[in-house]
């Protein structure tokens, strides 16, 4: 496991305020407790931050990376997608056992396929404003905290909240599943984009595969559903763009099967087809 430590900027002295209790993201076993706790949090004001406006997922992706040396296993606390059907548990744990890979293939085999549709008409705003808390029918929505901060709290370790605020994540450690390394995150104008929230099934991909015909509230649900969201390294998210698994997979080979399962789970939940090439890429990663 490569650990990247970025220098922290000295903190400015702030007026005395009640210390915010650190929130530590739980593993799969504690996901239910986390969801209940978040549901009780008070509202928080939107705070300008570069990361509050997500990057476009319609940028062209880099070519699929060559297989690097195997990364270290995911750290404790990351949940298997097979045990995390609603996406409320943190991270993305590898699927390495034969029974898990067989179960993964059964999920992927349920996917319908079709050719990719046209892209015209797609805009990020078609899925609601970024990280809205008012999407209906998804876990963590309506708790007074925006989706980005909910996901940072879910996936981060040693989370530190802004003093006197129940929502805004100021600092945390992230075990990035895509590159297989740790990120020492601190919120700020030049550092917030180091950790981004990835739509596992990109919004413009969904648009091409049928979401263009959905009602607005269904698109808002899709864009803010924790099942479709992971906190990841910003560079990896930018490299992915709006690609499906045939064109982009995580650099960390150990999570590629798990990533395919998560992609398939989202597509199945929203009755989205995938391209035949994407389905084949997911199957190959779980057979190997």
Notes on the protein architecture:
The model is unreliable at 1-48 and 58-76 (pLDDT under 50). Helix 7 crosses helix 8. The chain has helices at residues 31-39, 98-109, 147-155, 203-208, 216-224, 234-240, 256-269, 276-287, and strands at residues 2-4, 157-161, 169-176, 181-186, 195-199, 229-233. Helix content is 27%, strand content 11%. It has one domain (70-287). Strands 1-4-3-2 form a four-stranded mixed β-sheet. It contains eight helices and six strands. By secondary structure, the protein is of the alpha+beta class.
Across the major sheet, the strand order is 1-4-3-2
Radius of gyration: 18 Å
Query: Helix count, per DSSP?
Result: 8
Q: How does the overall form come out from the CA principal axes?
A: globular
The major sheet is characterized as: 4 strands, mixed
Sum up the structure in keywords.
6 strands; 8 helices; two-stranded antiparallel sheet; 288 residues; four-stranded mixed beta sheet; alpha+beta
Write the layout of secondary structure elements.
Blueprint: E1 2-4, H1 31-39, H2 98-109, H3 147-155, E2 157-161, E3 169-176, E4 181-186, E5 195-199, H4 203-208, H5 216-224, E6 229-233, H6 234-240, H7 256-269, H8 276-287
Parallel strand pairs: 1-4
Antiparallel strand pairs: 2-3, 3-4, 5-6
Helix pairs in contact: 2-7, 2-8, 7-8
Compact overview of the structure:
This protein is an alpha+beta fold.
């Amino acid at each position: 496991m490569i650990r990247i430590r970025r220098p922290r900027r000295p903190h400015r002295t702030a007026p005395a305020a009640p210390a915010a209790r650190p929130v530590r993201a739980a593993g799969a076993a504690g996901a239910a407790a986390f969801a209940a706790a978040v549901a009780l949090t008070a509202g928080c004001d939107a705070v300008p931050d570069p990361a509050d406006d997500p990057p476009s997922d319609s940028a062209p992706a880099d070519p699929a990376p060559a297989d690097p040396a195997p990364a270290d296993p995911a750290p404790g606390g990351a949940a298997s997608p097979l045990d995390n059907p609603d996406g409320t548990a943190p991270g993305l744990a590898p699927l390495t056992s034969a029974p898990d890979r067989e179960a993964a293939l059964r999920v992927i085999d349920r996917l319908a396929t079709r050719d990719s549709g046209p892209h015209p008409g797609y805009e990020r705003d078609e899925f609601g404003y970024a990280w809205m808390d008012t999407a209906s029918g998804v876990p963590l929505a309506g708790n007074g905290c925006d989706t980005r901060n909910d996901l940072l709290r879910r996936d981060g370790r040693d989370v530190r909240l802004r003093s006197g605020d129940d929502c805004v994540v100021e600092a945390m450690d992230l075990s990035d599943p895509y590159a297989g390394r740790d990120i020492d995150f601190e919120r700020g104008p030049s550092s917030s984009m180091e950790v981004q929230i990835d739509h596992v099934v990109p919004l413009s991909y969904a648009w091409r595969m049928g979401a263009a015909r959905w009602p607005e509230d269904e698109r808002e649900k899709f864009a803010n559903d924790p099942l479709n969201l992971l906190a990841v390294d910003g560079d990896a998210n930018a490299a992915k763009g709006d690609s499906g698994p045939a064109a982009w997979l995580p650099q960390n080979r150990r999570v590629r099967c798990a990533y395919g399962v998560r992609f398939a789970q989202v597509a199945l939940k929203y009755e989205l087809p995938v391209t035949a090439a994407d389905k084949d890429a997911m199957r190959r990663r779980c057979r190997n």
